[in-house]
Amino acid sequence: MDVQWYPGQMAKAKRVLRENLKLVDAVIEVLDARLPASSRNPDIRELLERRPVVAVLTRPDLADPVQTAAWLHSLREDYFAVAAANGTTGEGIKKLMQLFLTLPRRRKHGQRPLRLIIVGIPNVGKSSLINRLIGRSATKTGDKPGITKQPQWVSLQAGLELLDTPGMLWPKISCKEQAFRLAVAGAVKDEILDPVELGIELVSFMRRHFWEELQQRYSLENFTADAQAILADIAKRRGCLLKGGAVDLEAAARLLVKDLREGRLGRITFERPGEQEDEAEELCQDDGREDFLLTE
Ligand SMILES: Nc1nc2c(ncn2[C@@H]2O[C@H](COP(=O)(O)OP(=O)(O)OP(=O)(O)O)[C@@H](O)[C@H]2O)c(=O)[nH]1
Ligand SMILES: [Mg+2]
Fold this sequence. Notes:
296 residues; alpha/beta; Rossmann fold; Conserved Hypothetical Protein Ylqf, Chain: A, domain 2; 2 domains; 6-stranded mixed beta sheet; binds guanosine-5'-triphosphate; binds magnesium ion
């Protein structure tokens, strides 16, 4: 699966990050608890070295809790601090706020509030997290990527200022596994993805790692069938049919991806700590194909 989605707002968000780094005390890098490694943006890593960075894992409700604990432990090596928080229910927000209040201030801060910049891939829950932290809907949120278009300062009376930024990917996502995980997690605009290709890759992944969950959800029988045949089976069992009775693979793929995103296939973490080094060798090699850049 190829993913190149780098609209102007992402390039702009990177500029805003660079410009605002000197104004903030720390950076909050929001990662998806289901794909903490794949949701780290390599394009901004070097910028982030200039400030303390806190990693916040969102969507812990959709991830395997054992894996989330393992990720929090492993990410501690790379970040100033780590935490998990749910941007929908508010679970973990109090602890997160306490953690923020212990962050070191820059020397020249005087009496001004603590200032943090929130960055992360699209649709990971940055704006929801801000709303939860300040206890009101100050930023727009939504269940598709690209909702936040402009950077926006939001402040809390208790002495905290947060800069919300548009979700950022990077110009070329060359690792196919990473592209798949970002796409299936909802970080990439659906319009640039081939739904059937994504559905088949998801079936393939589920068949390898979570067959029981897939089988139970759709009452499937045939484990040996190839991924496309399983998707066709899902289509039949869910009544995704075209006029004339042929299976509608696209409708089945959309349904499967939606079920995954909404947690109906169980709490699924796509990657484990330490696994990425092996993957980088095996799966993430550039296939030498021409890149294309999709801009808006
Ligand atoms: N299940 C679950 N959903 C969440 C969580 N946090 C946020 N969401 C949902 O994720 C979607 C995206 O949330 P936003 O806060 O708009 O994400 P964002 O990172 O600001 O997205 P962009 O502005 O598009 O980059 C919304 O539908 C939220 O309700 C969480 O912890 N768990
Ligand atoms: Mg947002």
